[in-house]
Amino acid sequence: MYRIIQWATGSMGAAIVRGVLDHPDLEMVGAYVYSDSKSGVDVGTLVGRPAAGVHATNNVEAILAADADVVVHAGRVGPYGSHDEDIIRLLESGKNVISINGYTYTEYWNNERSKRLQEACIKGNSTLCGAGLNPGFIAEQVATLVTGLSSSVDHVEIVESADATKLRDPNYLFDALGFGADPKIRSANDPSWLPVAAFNGMYEETIGLVAYRLGMTLDRVESDHIVHTAKADIPVYAGIVRAGTVSHTNWRWHGIVGGKRRLTLSIHWYVDPTNLDEPNPPLWKVNVTGHPGARISINVEKHPDDRSKMSPEQYAVAARVINLIPLVVAAKPGLMRLPTTTPFRDDYLTSGNTQV
Q: Which residues are within 8 A (CB) of 296 and not within 5 positions of it... i.e. 6 or more apart?
């Protein structure tokens, strides 16, 4: 039985809590929350489940003192690295940490930041790794595997397309993701704008891991982000995206190798599909240009018997974390590079030492 603490219970954090509560080999032993209104509330109640007998807290010291195998970190979106201090304290307290927002290849930075995280792992005999959908799955794992069909590769493109109209949290939609911003005030490539500050480092790290897996030496990672604006007011679940403001973001990073763009990650988040490259795109596409080339597309979908309000993406994030837990617990202390595969395992409790 693995003992789990959830750090933050927003949309994805709540989905992970539900996944842990439903799993026979996992025990929820704590949850950190930001707000006073959630502190003291049973974690089951927080996520719409029966009481679990574990109460959330906004006291960091209580979390540090708790006995747990893994803390799943799903903190609020901020500039990449802004959660390092909390993560360092968790690692030093002897808890393994899985982040759903990057940290899949922290050694990429090879700087004081990665050194401090590594030292925290050694001090606490703990491990840090990242797991998620993007970052954490489609590029670092799927795209690298698809290149195995090619004997030579000119270019790898990973494309995500996600409809943001049903996002419930106004702060997340309008602040963290940048919808509703005035492009005359906020440039899509302004490093001081929150989405750019949050995503540039995180996805540069993703490009870094793909390059490492493909044996490519990066010259650098370039970004050339694009935003599109609404022609009329667009009502969405979290509010209204006003005419003339950002209704579609296309975040783009390119891995430059030998002076050429060899890797591209393109993320379309939108509330208006007008400027998409194709109607009704899949969640993900991987396009490999090579000998031979390969193209795949992936969607996630709910179980046919599932009548819950959870989205398939929420289920998938929870699964990504759950499937990584045995490997992180079994890993040697330090910064753990996200494995190439982290599949579902029927032999869950004994799968941590199994190479696949």
A: 142, 146, 285, 286
Q: Which amino acid belongs to residue 58?
A: N
Give the total number of structural domains in the chain: 2
At 73-96, the pLDDT tens digits run 999 999 999 999 999 999 999 999
What gap in Å lies between CA 112 and CA 196, rounded to an integer? 22
DSSP-assigned letter for residue 332: P
Residue 9 main-chain phi, psi, to 5 deg: -125, 45
Report the alpha-carbon distance of residue 146 to residue 295 in Å, rounded. Answer: 8
Residue linked to tokens 């540090």? 64
Q: Tell the burial category of 134 from Cβ atoms under 10 Å away from its Cβ (0-12, 13-18, 19+).
A: buried
Q: Is the pLDDT of residue 247 over 70?
A: yes
Q: Give the Cβ contact number of residue 197 at 10 Å.
A: 18
219 shares its domain with 283:
yes
Q: Are residues 151 and 274 in the same domain?
A: yes
The first and second tokens of residue 49, run together, are 């489940």
CATH no. for residue 77?
3.40.50.720
DSSP reduced 3-state for 103? coil
57 lies in which domain range? 2-132+307-353
Rg value, the chain, Cα: 20
Scan for tokens 């090579």, then name that residue. Answer: 290
Domain boundary among 298, 315, 333: 298
Q: Can you tell me whether residue 57 is helix, strand or coil?
A: strand
Instruction: Say if residue 144 is in the same domain as residue 195.
Output: yes
Neighbour tally for 55: CB within 10 Å: 19
67 and 196 housed in the same domain: no
Do 209 and 280 share a domain, yes or no?
yes
Count of other CB atoms within 10 angstroms of residue 63: 23
- State pTM to two decimals: 0.95
Does one domain contain both 267 and 285? Answer: yes
Of 179, 164, 195, nearest to 101 by C-alpha is 195
320 and 274 share one domain? no
